[in-house]
Please model this.
Amino acid sequence: MPTIPYQAENFGAVYGPNLAGTHTLTVSWPQIVCAALSVGKAQGDLALHGEFSLFEMAYRVAIVFANLREAESGEIVRSSAYDGLDPSEKGSISYFLGLTMAKLFAHQLMDVPWLMHLDVYRAVLNLQLLGNSKPDLVGLNGNNEWVVVEAKGRTNDFSETTLAAAKTQTQQVTTIGGVQPVLRVGTLTYFADSLTVAMRDPKGHSKRSRMPDIPLAKERLREDYYRPLSAWTFERPGPPETIVRRRPFRIRQVSDFDLSVGVPLFRKADTVNPVEAETLEGEFVGKDGVLVRLGTLWSEANMRLEPQVRQR
Model:
């Protein structure tokens, strides 16, 4: 299974030893793909544009499939396709991988199932944000508490300046719904010998922040989180309900990528609390209830090959 080295600094003791010092996170390709698909989108809903919604979902999966490879050691390295990109293309890919890793680590280590781009709410909430100083993501943990996350990505090695900037951006938010976030995590995803993540949890907001309270309701964030995936899975005719591990899902397949995505058919009250995450070979159900199932195209043997020679 894939492994990701990481460093965690400044997290409170309540988060346990896994968020203090240097460790390795063991994950699965379904977990990584789930993070790539579910991290909140910055501009509008994925499913507002008919068939192009499928292209958007496929594009997210394609970034993971085409640019990452599992080494013999289990660590994740850049593919030859990634190395062949020009610098601006690498910048876009590394940014998206940074978002994906931020969602993955928040979910796995910080009990944060729900993350949305703050830009989603710029116009609706009339936020007066300060250009590039705003953080990327806001979300909720399993205790229904606010978190703020800034995600950075680099093609090459660790940058102290970049991680420090991420930390500063999380401190620009003072309160959300009148309450201070319990986490303000700056993350940096980079490639040393392999894909690596660095995380810091700075304490408190900046005294120089001019950002007002963000009047965002928790219920709205959760509804917005599920809406794109739900609309996408209902876009095409199919079985209205599929039971997986005693839970009801609406499932849609993306055959080109040997992928199935299931959205939980929650009663509204069920979205208040996270479900228990479950992992089986080739399948993952997150704490948010989203299901990702991968076929043989994503087998360990295939993911250790360059993307252009992988076969089902």
